[in-house]
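Reviewer comment 2.1 asked that we show a complete input and output for one of the modelled complexes. We chose the 3-methyl-2-oxobutanoic acid case, as it is the one discussed in the main text.
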Amino acid sequence: MTRIIKIFDTTLRDGEQCPGASMNAQEKLQIAHQLARLRVDIIEAGFPYSSPGDFESVKQIAREVKGPIIAGLARARGEDIDAAAEAVKYAERPRIHTFIATSDIHLQHKLRKTRDEVLEIAVEAVKRARQHVEDVEFSPEDASRSDLDYLCRVVEAVINAGATTINIPDTVGYATPEEFARIFITLRNRVPGIENITLSTHCHDDLGLGVANSLAAVMAGAGQVECTINGIGERAGNACLEEIVMALRTRHNFFQADTNLDASEIIKMSRLVRDITGFPIPPNKAIVGANAFAHAAGIHQDGVLKSQMTYEIMKPEDVGLDSNRLVLTSRSGRHAFKVRMAALGYDLEGDDLQRAYQRFLEVADKKKEVVDEDLIALMSDQDVAHEDEYELEYLTVMSALGGVPTATVRLRRGEERFTEVGTGVGSVDAVYKTVEKIVRTDHHLTDYIVSAVTGGTDALAEVSVRIARGPQIFTGRSAALDVIEASARAYLQAINKLIYYGTRRSETKRLTAQAV
Ligand code: KIV
Ligand code: ZN
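Response of the prediction step:
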């Protein structure tokens, strides 16, 4: 008998909470739509009381994203719960997720409350949430470091108050698999009524055990797993969705469990989160890393050619990677390009197709063979075009050993052209300072990451940048054969987003409809 484990994705809440991962409303909506295509069961869309921006974003996702349950997080306080209820109320199936810490460490040092006081607050919170919605999840924060007898009391009390899901978080990533499983077994043995609710697990990866602990919880009776795409999240991150889902599927004989997910959407999902957050994926990352299905050792290659089963436990196609690798050249026509891009998950039409094809030709003219990794990298800066966007028209950098790097940059915006000259401590710095002279936006660069897409000195350089204006973060990515050009384009993309989303929020909706 296969148990179906519900997948509760918290990329937009716990994932977004980690430093540098904040996303704007349009980006969150884009991710939520892709999560629905991935067929996750629950999307935790945000923490509505935490800011007006988060409130609006949860509300927009609740209105527009169909399929999954849409959850909003709330501390165990009336105003938080009411805000979460208001934000999720337009969802087809709304959920309120309320929490309060139950470990003595949190009670004494953070909440300064007794166990009895916290128990009462938890019960009142669940009752209040139940006045708004039927689907209420309760989390005893820091459960894995809580006294087990007390945890059982709290869980029993909130079930009686109407909680329909009880989530057990390993908030600080402290548990080990056997120990964590014991908590679930104890709750199932001791708490009356637990058989009528869904038990859930929520793990962090501080000791690198997030996925192992989640799977141990599943074996011990958890029917829901909370996780994030690419494992992004607080500190070392949350348990990683794609690893959990593929472990259950690949080791079905062991777990006797599966999920409702369409795993062939995993790669697309992972790349979208990477592109929006600007957090790179290490090449050796399980399931979604560039090398996850690459066989380099001769013995392995020989074995896989004879039978995939020798060294492959999953098929790349299962997670949405096209194993049928093709090489395009400058002689490849627009149709071949379009078909290849569709196989890689990019459905391009009209102007978008034309722009992408032009970028491909520019690269293919210089680099004889364009492989899938190059095409994916080139797509990273295909952003939504708008008339106020700055475009790079001309760029030179003079740099000599012992000299001062000097850049000349010409940008176009609509019919206007702007040219400036500037210097910096290095070539990229000179270009960025010169761009800043032209655009004059009030921001600062927080991250600049450069990597080579393939091997060789003719590899495409891929650049990711993040810029900040107050609490707002904007990301830019670009790939080009020249690292200075990629740097300039990535920076301009982030600046264009800042100008567009930062100053024309009212038009976000129109843009969203185009982008999704
Ligand atoms: O890690 C944690 O404890 C949380 C709770 C709010 C579920 O994120
Ligand atoms: Zn968490």
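The first strand starts at residue 3 and ends at 4. We note this here for comparison with the apo prediction described in Section 3.2.
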